[in-house]
Amino acid sequence: MKHPLFTIAILLLPLTHLPAGQLAVGDILPAITANDQHGTPFVLTTNIQVLLVATEMDCAKAANRKLADQRAGFLEKYHAAYLMDIHTMPAIGRFFAIPKMQKYPQRIVLIDSPTVLADFPTKASCVTVISLNATNQIQKISYWNPASEPVAQCFP
Q1: What's the structural domain count of the chain?
Q2: Alpha helical stretches, state H, 32-116
């Protein structure tokens, strides 16, 4: 070993190319801006305490139905926001889906970019539930299966 620092640098080189990784407890949630189903701008603010994130279409449909069964103002009561990933939805699907979403009483923030939710943890058939503190630091990450579990479990 004539050059131990060179050897260490070569061994550590692969670590410099690791992806940023998923968000975890303790991380600060990145800024999120998007429009809801009515075209109204949404900006993640410090008054949001619970973030519901649906990334699979079947799961999102089940979540829409469960949330629609709640009274108007339900999400606001819990200082919650509901985000739905639509970036892979084809134009013809949007043509029919968005007017249907406009009839729901809850605000659905439509995420139309593959990068906005890329670092969010996911679990098959579940909505990711992220609890935040006043500085948008992640306090807890859990999962809600809207097909089989009550919506109440998402909130303290």
Answers
A1: 1
A2: 57-68, 74-77, 91-101
pLDDT digits (tens, 9 = 90+) for 38-54: 999 999 887 899 999 99
- Integer CA distances (angstroms), 143 to 24, 53, 95, 98, in order: 13, 9, 29, 25
Give a yes or no: residue 60 inside a domain: yes
- Residues 6+ positions from 75 with CB-CB distance below 8 Å: 52, 67, 81, 82, 106, 107
Amino acid, res. 3 = H
Give helix then strand counts, H and E, for the chain. 4, 7
Nearest to 122 by CA among 106, 133, 111: 111
Q: What is the pTM of this model?
A: 0.83
What CATH code is carried by the domain that includes residue 59? Answer: 3.40.30.10
Structure tokens, 47: 């008054």
Q: Which residue, among 101, 108, 97, 100, has the nearest Cα to 54 in the 3D structure? A: 108
Does 129 map to a domain? yes
